[in-house]
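Technical annex B. To support the medicinal chemistry partners, we prepared a structural model of the target in complex with zinc ion, based solely on the information shown next.
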Amino acid sequence: MSWELVIRQKFSSAHFLENYKGKCERMHGHTFELEVRLRTTELDKSGISIDFGPVKEYLRGLVPDHRVLNEAYDFSPSAENLARYFYRRIREKYPVVKVIVWESEDAGAAYAEDQ
Ligand SMILES: [Zn+2]
């Protein structure tokens, strides 16, 4: 028996892809969406497992809103690399099983590690 909690946090940032030939080599922006999935197996007496409020607050502090991602990080800020980075940060605090970074409504990258 388990639950997967899903929490989403939007952020608007600019980036360009390094070592890449194509239109994304030029600076452009997205309203990204960070989607986080946490797995839990127990509920407390009120029927919840992990309170959404503190998770949302943590994610708000984690996302690089209104930043140039290439300046914020020392890796090429593709959706794939961002998903791995966020996964490893969130893992320090919450039982994360998957992170998806959406660049648009219909394109994103999911990252998970073997449990
Ligand atoms: Zn892009």
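Notes passed to the chemistry partners:
The longest strand covers residues 3-15.
Strands lie at 3-15, 28-40, 96-104, 107-111.
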